């Protein structure tokens, strides 16, 4: 979600910098973040004071280049972001990420840097883009290594407490029945319980027939973390038996990326972050993909700020639910699960039968498994 339009005085304060604060008033917390981002860039211009342009205090900037890129994509509209990025590269020569191959090759891969690459890959020349792809691949590998384990555990089946298992593994361990059957071996003097016969449960499969999972991913700039984890989640689900996974990215247009769902690196490099949002159009496309509503789950990953018709979005979600399909809405899908979303729209969708949450990928895997099992 972009920065709310500030008042005229706040805009003048952002333009002129800290010296204008006595006349314009202090900045709001949200505008302070925008001020820091502007200062990080335009504070490099030594001649700005002579021209009467903004200038701020002497405190050091806490932003790295990747942090700055991610911040401006969260705070500013698309046209402002494009101008800031253009000034950064062409006016101030800030090339640590978008032009300097040597720096890009030696920098430590991280999710923060991955977000920055996704925001700026359209500015990279082919040689730098190839190096950036390697960085993306390494970060995705790390995320997938963890997420694949969480997905496998969630979909490996539920414990059947009526039957015992010969597979003595931790996830099948029945703690309560083991304690109950070994209570006679408790030693009061040592205050210890000695286990002679640990009990393990067998497991039942959570799904016997194929399920269709349709992931609708909002490409707006504030959803970049969710886009990353959705791409990896889709690849993990793709590998499961009995699951047909589709991944669809949208802004004001809808792009079906299912052909690349098994390769999250390629998928992420095709994502175009930013722009408007037409959620209803994406849900309409999902409706066209649903062949067996009773075996279909539509997962909408979005901040629910509808740029199109809110009424149309609600109507289409209602129609999906009434057809028998499951509709899950995610306001955030990343390691922190910190949502910022349109709560009014989310509440309207819940009233029509959708289920809305914000969660980590591991929690989504468990939620999907529970929905499929029900």
From TrEMBL:
* Protein's recorded name: VWA domain-containing protein
Q: Where is the VWFA domain?
A: 210-369
Q: Which InterPro entries match?
A: LolB, Uncharacterised_CoxE, VWF_A, vWFA_dom_sf
List, alphabetically, the Pfam families matched.
VWA_CoxE
Ranked from the top, the taxonomy reads: Bacteria, Pseudomonadati, Pseudomonadota, Betaproteobacteria, Burkholderiales
Gene3D superfamilies given in the database record: von Willebrand factor, type A domain (3.40.50.410)
